[in-house]
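Continuing the series of single-chain predictions for the mutant panel. This is the parent chain; the variants come on the following pages.
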Amino acid sequence: MFSEKILHHSQLLYHSFARTTGKSLLQTVPISEEFLAQALYEAPFVLLSHDTQTDPVFNYANLTAQQLWEMDWAQFTRLPSRLSAEPVAMAERQAMLGEAREKGYLSDYQGVRISSSGRRFLIKGAILWSLYDAQGAYQGQAAFFQDWTFL
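Parent structure:
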């Protein structure tokens, strides 16, 4: 069901979150790569990540993220991550990402985001972290949150 790339990226998200925060994204221990990929993709929380380009583009968005931003996988994974925030919030978002990159992760972040239809929502309690693979190579940044309010 999932491509080799998504199976690998799901592992990266799961293990880097645990290494960085000391917490687990799931309440159950994944029994296979496929189980992990499906559990993260169908989770009731938002999980997304962007790549390492100068203007990073989303490379992962689970179903909850897709529904919240009102985009499908193909749309989401072509979107520069800076465009997930309103123009007035972009500077704040960039500073927050810089802090997360410097410190490894940032917890309890909140900020306003905007869906593809223009619907605004406040995310609360977000954890942002830098993605490093098992060899220590930087792979981008990710975000997890489960609390949001439509404005």
